[in-house]
Hints:
The chain is mainly beta. It has no helices and eight strands. The protein has strands spanning 2-7, 14-16, 21-27, 33-35, 43-44, 52-55, 61-69, 72-81. A five-stranded mixed beta sheet has the order 2-8-7-4-5, with no helix packed on it. Strands 1-3-6 form a three-stranded antiparallel beta sheet, with no helix packed on it. A hairpin with a 2-residue loop joins strand 7 and strand 8 (72-81). The N and C termini lie far apart (90 Å).
Amino acid sequence: MGRISVFPFDNQVVIIVGQPVTFKFKGDQIPTEWNFHDATPALPSSISVDNEVTHTFTKAGIYNVVVQVNGQLYQQKVTVIDPIVKPTLPAKPSATPSTVAGTAAKISNS
């Protein structure tokens, strides 16, 4: 049996985009593969030191981090947020060309 811990958060599953996060498999066996399901390739455990691996998510979203250990899959759901909130601009009103009635004024520099 085992589980995945998220460091430095230890059980907190909200991560900030661009912030490196360390995942550690806690169990008696050695992981064979880490998969972050964020379009990056799965990582072999050979890159892992002490059953842990550091990863940086580049897009906000909800991801299932999965580690494979002797054919068994263990997962941890993480939420990745972007702390920079971009304001939503109001929709542009649809404008139709119109003419304004009046007389033209002449501007001079004298």
